Amino acid sequence: MRLLTSILLLLLAACAVQDNASQRRLVTLTIIGTNDVHGTLLPKEMNGGLAAFSGYVAAVRAARAADGGAVLLIDAGDMWQGSLESNLVEGRTVVDIYNALGYTAATIGNHEFDFGPVGAAAIPTGSSDDPRGALRQRIREATFPVLSANIVYRETGELIDWDNVSPSVMVEAAGIKVGIIGLVTADAFKVTIAANTVGLEIAPLADAIVREATSLREQGADIVIVTAHAGSRCTEFGDPQDLSSCDPGGEIVQVANALPAGLVDHIVAGHVHRGMAHIINGIAVTSSFSNTYAFDRVDFSIDQDSGRVIERKVFPPQVNCPAIGRASGECAWLETDPALVRPASYEGRPVEPMASVEAIVASAAAHAAAIKAEPLGVTLTSAIDLEGNPESPLANLFTDAVLAGVDADVAIHNVSGGIRAILPAGELTYGKVYEISPFDNRVAIVEVSGAGLRRLIATEAMKQGRRAGFAGMRVFIGCANGTPQVEMVLNNGHTIADDDPVRIVSNDFLVTLGDGVLTPAMPPGGFQYADDPRLTRDLLVEWFRKRGGSLSAADFSTEAEPRWNFTDSFIAQCQHGI
Predict the structure, then answer these.
(1) Staple 414 to which of 157, 270, 356, 418, CB 3.0 to 4.6 Å?
(2) pTM of the full predicted structure?
(3) Which CATH topology does 374-575 take?
């Protein structure tokens, strides 16, 4: 009898559990993340543009409205620097679009600092100029909170206290309390113009997250999301639990692994322009490449009564395709003939851009159209691109053009990060040149010793990734006793000795030690250089105008006389002291 009673009690308890589960009031929160939009308003090959993206957002919002859930739209920084449509108004167009889209929150990226003071000058030109004037103006215009939990004042260590900036924010969506924290990479001030970040420092990311997330949990946050302009990369997205394709040394991977279990639910990452859709240390970590190619998404199924996450789904990066070719069934990035395409679909709904966003994009495009279309008198018979390492046709063209416009011995440019597009075949316009060089970096000429230049070249040669581009010399590198041996020969045939003075033309970003390219050559006390109002982009434009005619990638191929000369085994030999 006792046994029968026990079995009945267990069955009743099981039924009660099932009843409780069936009675749960579940709600779906969809988190849509963007990162490194870089002012990409208009569609182009492999980038859908913000108008197309608004159609995807509208489709998801319609789905959540139907089931009683909610959508949170979060950006991980580098929002507006990069296109003429955005840069002409120092990013205001992107802020207007984000306001229209109804972003929940965004964080500050390194390139948010690029515009400097309000107005034409990219850096302060007088004591009254606010080096963060344009950035602070854009933040004031935003109808969403801008978050920064780890940018601090150097003198005090206190967090920045700008209008509409806070380290974190609590929002409520479909009855769920969501805490959101904003951060920027530890390397932020190495990859923006130093003059605009004077007096600021970056505090450790993990410490800032723990501080803010603990506070948000104490305030009742059901889930905590971090939007971080910091990243890593993965190459496979089929299984969020499979980290075998991910870089374990990536900054955001290390940050996620350093956090206490259960403190953070989701990280929207960015900065490195790579994809992620993975679970790291129990945290959903997502990133969606760059320039509106894709967006990321995580759905949380949450018990409204307890606030507990019952289930989550991490989606692979979703391509931001504006339309589908009727014949091919594939993404039609640029085709606008309605007879040839149909709208893309998402969540069972057609992707139809929001009218308010389309209007802003159209206005910005019209404003920039005449400037972009200005012909430079050159026709490219083939695309000129960045294929090749350590040198490429576009890097060679770029440095040749800069060197031709100044009195210097050598031109050096940060090809990785400093050249943002390729030059396509066809008539060359100002807009195409702007795309490869959207930064308002000014010309800077510095004098270094031959020994300093030798250290610079040796450091670049040892890199595994893309090396700096240069013009005006050839370098020959070997290895002796584990040390790079560098010979540098100017175009006039002179072999540079250690005590030779060498005039290098670069830009104000690099001479203030951006990207660290010129750091090995820096003399004691730093670089001294004259104030030059010209932009490196201006030198390119003038060079094209003077040259005219036709050009091709073959014109800048140096296979016969390479600028970089070393064997494939060079790095391994020097690394292992062979």
Answers:
(1) 418
(2) 0.88
(3) 5'-nucleotidase;  domain 2 (3.90.780)
